DNA sequence: ACGCTCACG
DNA sequence: GACGTACGTGAGCGTA
């Protein structure tokens, strides 16, 4: 049947369908090889629904899906900036594009694209031809650029809202009839497609002018008649630009097409072809549904193929500081916001006066929307130092910070705009202190950490060098170093801008590179559940801080100073001369040269070793080593804790705000810095008193919850040691049980000495035990230690198997894994020499330590929802412990809920064969809570 | 800048 | 067969 009267042509805007499917659906990957297929899946579902619903009197007789092809079109020849601010295609989407063509063909729907032409022009030409032939046309799209085609039997259908758009609909949108839509667009321009239009004229004004003058040509010819002087001048001055804009927005209705309308006649799908395609994409549900409808057996499910190598990514233009813009007013900022709204992704970086987020003041913000497209917004740069009177004045050429933040806020909080940062926790906190909650976020540092943990560092300079082959401007070039260092607000704007914008540019490029690789590395779940959600959680903990009683610390410092002075006198007397007790070098000379105590040189530097274990051994020979040990303990407590901690009390909050590095430790553990609150003393009575300085405010208490023996439990599970598992299930003393198994001592006759040995072995196993290490730890002969280990492996052969298997896996794959899929790379595992031993033990330890780290991360992410409604704040994490501050009335409720979260944190992803047990305590200070 | 020592899990 | 060793961190100090 030839196309003519009574026929109905449906034209589907394929690209719009794909983008919508891509953005509307969560990332989905093909199981066998990790290929992203979310957009294809959504696209197929839409096509299926389309086919299903296309029935009745209004049904299409002809249909085609039209795609764009190539980025350079005849419009670029007219205007090189056309669609210049259109973002690059997301990396996840790119590989799906060819498959959407295949999908269309699999549905046996005509699939058309012509190199160098936009889909819109093909749609326009087909619509015009169909109209001329006397048929009806429905364009399935919501693109306003297509509205100029409406009328005379051509309609649009917004597939999203299922809303028909006819003449009235177009008038609603543009204020004119469809045949004048291009005139309005030519005047108003389009920021998304980068059509210039007339400056200062939007759709409303344009429609008004066209209504008044009848057409664009008429308007331009009679522009002198316009009453408003400014508007008149704009139209006269920009005539050429407006005429160009019209050419850009006017669709080509008369293209040469290598096919005709008759080729688009509706055909039934070929069942086998369609099912083969869907099955190849591994869409189980859709395959079954369509097979059922077609009355066919669904094809056999495809088995997983081996890991495919990553395809190469296209090369971006090199980083060029000259392309960056300095944004100095609201108008310029608005252009960036429009651009961001169109792309939905932006890299953000803040410049501040300090590395301490709790004291840092915002100085400027940089943004990047695509490679090479970046800007710096200076906000609080000051005029140069030196001049005492002028030094605090704001430098000229900056927009008011309030204005900028209020303009940025909707974007930063917009759930539809992804904010990408490098170490986003920093920027998150800076914005949070200004009342802006940045969400959603991605973090390039964490993307790298999830994929390449153990291979290299994840700082921006390292990542830029490695993945972009680019050396970032060192911050020292701007602010100097050491004594002459200045804060960033003292850097001239023109010097700051290239540095700052570069950071955003680099971050954006890294994101494009690293994000799509997540699924190929099979760590999407790690990133999405263990890394990314932790950013706001840790930010809140750090901002909350813990209350520290300066008085307590100060008094202790005084006491320590006195005791140290007394000890020092005694030490000098015993040594026979005064010397610096804090100098290991001088101490070594006194002990081994002057007093001739036994012990020798050690270390590459040739210096005597004077570590605690050596001094303890020497304590039987002479009184001096014991005194040194006492002095050292006091010195450590004073300098590292009672003195230094006071300097970390924030003057505004009166609290201590640590910072956690999420990507610091290779195993997945957090690390705490500035100050480190994960190594506050607890093992000695004297040290433990420092914890009395960590307090809760009036009416509140500190609650500590810690996992009992979590690493040994995980070892028992992973290695499958029945006796250990049973002991944990029965709640028995695990070290006593081990001792009983090894040495044949009944539990009721267990001595502390035997138990201590078993405990050392249990821990040794976690660390990758060796005879030498155990011997040193227990201070027993090496042969004896080796005998213990042999016995241990005899009683628990599963442990030996775990260690061997893990090392074998590491050698084969260059990495090990936690139960939650975190990958820890072991690049040195195949090294020769002493390094090999280290790498082996690290490989044995990493899955155990790392799984425990994953468990508590999961608990932390879930904690907020689980404790909602309780006036409680999570303050600290110490590897297997969480510390909270809570109103004293609610402490018990908190313990109950937090314990439930922690003990079930492994579920539902990992079902452990041992129970996780959490001990809890509460008190006015950390010593009491523990 | 680096190594030593020692605080924690 | 020798080598040198417990795993993972961060901070302060002395020494170059």
TrEMBL record:
EC number: 2.7.7.7
Enzyme class: transferase
A GO molecular function held by the record: 3'-5' exonuclease activity
PROSITE patterns: DNA_POLYMERASE_A
Single biological process term from Gene Ontology: DNA-templated DNA replication
Species in which this protein is naturally found: Jannaschia pohangensis
Coiled coil: none
Catalytic activity: DNA(n) + a 2'-deoxyribonucleoside 5'-triphosphate = DNA(n+1) + diphosphate
Domain 3'-5' exonuclease: 324-519
Subunit structure as annotated in this protein's UniProt entry: Single-chain monomer with multiple functions.
Domain 5'-3' exonuclease: 4-267
Function: In addition to polymerase activity, this DNA polymerase exhibits 3'-5' and 5'-3' exonuclease activity.
Ranges where the DNA-directed DNA polymerase family A palm domain occurs: 687-890
Key words, A-Z: DNA damage, DNA repair, DNA replication, DNA-binding, DNA-directed DNA polymerase, Exonuclease, Hydrolase, Nuclease, Nucleotidyltransferase, Transferase
UniProt record similarity statement: Belongs to the DNA polymerase type-A family.
Top-level taxon in the UniProt lineage: Bacteria
InterPro entries (UniProt xref): 3'-5'_exonuclease_dom, 5-3_exonucl_a-hlix_arch_N, 5-3_exonuclease, 5-3_exonuclease_C_sf, DNA-dir_DNA_pol_A_CS, DNA-dir_DNA_pol_A_palm_dom, DNA/RNA_pol_sf, DNA_polI_H3TH
Protein name per Swiss-Prot or TrEMBL: DNA polymerase I
Cited NCBIfam families: pola, PRK05755.1
Gene behind the chain: polA
